[in-house]
C-alpha cells in the first residue's frame, strides 16, 4: 500500500490561462488545503518537445511559479519546483521508454492532434515520447493521485499501463496504479473563439484565451467578444446540450462562482448573453485580479522565485532519488 500523495504539473510553454487556473491550479490549492502531501512542478522538459526560446522559457518558468504561489500554493506546505532541476525525471523516463510500446504512444490523441495535417516525421522524438516522461514525473514520487483537466485523461491511463507493465515484467509490486482526479465544472474550458477547441496557452493562433496576467479591461473585452449563438440562456441544463459556446460560458461561471451548473441555469434562465456576460466578467475579474497583482509583486524579485524553486527541487529530489535507486536495483543496473 502506498501513502496518499498528489503530483501534478504545468508546462511553462506560455502564460497560464483561465483553463489552467480552473482545470488545474485552483484544484491544486484545494488539494493542498485538504492536507494531503502535494508535489507540484513546472514541467520545462515537456515544454521543449516543441521549440521554446531559451530566454522566454526561463521567464515563463518563473512566471508559472509566481502563478502557483499567487493562486495559493504555499511552497512550505507543498513542494514546488522545476522539472529539469530533478534529474530523476529524465532518468526514470528512459526506463519507461523501454517499458512503453510504440503502439501505445502512436494511439495518443494529443500526438495525433498535434501532428494532424503536418509532417509527423518532422515532429520531435520527445513529442512522441512525452507520455513516458509524464509517467516518470508521477511515478518517481510514487504519487497515487493526479489532479488534471480532461485533456490529460488518456495520458494518465498510459501512466497506469506503464506502472502495471513494469510491475508485471519485473515481478514486483513497486509502482502504484495512479488515480486521475478529473473533477468539477471546468475540467475542459473551451476556447472563447469557438466552443470546439480547448483554451490552451500553447495554441499561438488563438488570441481569445484569458491569461492570468490580463487586466480587468482585457478580460472584459475578451468575454464580451466570446462567440455565442443568438438564443437566450435555456431554462434547463439539458437545453445546453447542443450549444457548446453557451455551455462553456455557463461552466466557467459555475467554476468561478462555486455554484452548480443547475443553480447558474436557474438564476439566468431566459436571460440574454448581454445580461449574463457582464456578470461573468465581474466574477472573472474578482477571481483573477488578486492573482495578477500578487504575480506582479513576486515577479519583481526573480532571485526569490529561483530560491523557492531550488528549495523545492532539493525536497523533491530527496523523495525521488531513493525510489530511482530501487528502480535501478530492480532492473539489474
Ligand atoms: P496547455 O494545454 O494550456 O499548454 P498544459 O498541457 O500545461 O496546458 O496543462 C496543465 C494543466 O492544465 C493540465 O492539468 C491540463 O489538463 C490543464 N488544462 C489545460 N488546458 C485546460 C483547459 N482548457 N481546461 C481545463 N484544464 C486545462
Ligand atoms: Na496540454
From TrEMBL:
Could you give a GO molecular-function term held by this entry? tryptophan-tRNA ligase activity
Pfam families according to UniProt: tRNA-synt_1b (PF00579)
Chain location of the short sequence motif 'HIGH' region per the record: 12-20
Q: InterPro entries per the record?
A: aa-tRNA-synth_I_CS (IPR001412), aa-tRNA-synth_Ic (IPR002305), Rossmann-like_a/b/a_fold (IPR014729), Trp-tRNA-ligase (IPR002306), Trp-tRNA-ligase_bac-type (IPR024109), Trp-tRNA_synthetase (IPR050203)
Q: Which keywords does this Swiss-Prot/TrEMBL entry list?
A: Aminoacyl-tRNA synthetase, ATP-binding, Cytoplasm, Ligase, Nucleotide-binding, Protein biosynthesis
Q: What's the chief localization of this chain?
A: cytoplasm
Where it sits in the cell: the answer is: Cytoplasm
NCBIfam families, alphabetically? trpS
What is its biological role?
Catalyzes the attachment of tryptophan to tRNA(Trp).
Q: Know the name of this protein?
A: Tryptophan--tRNA ligase
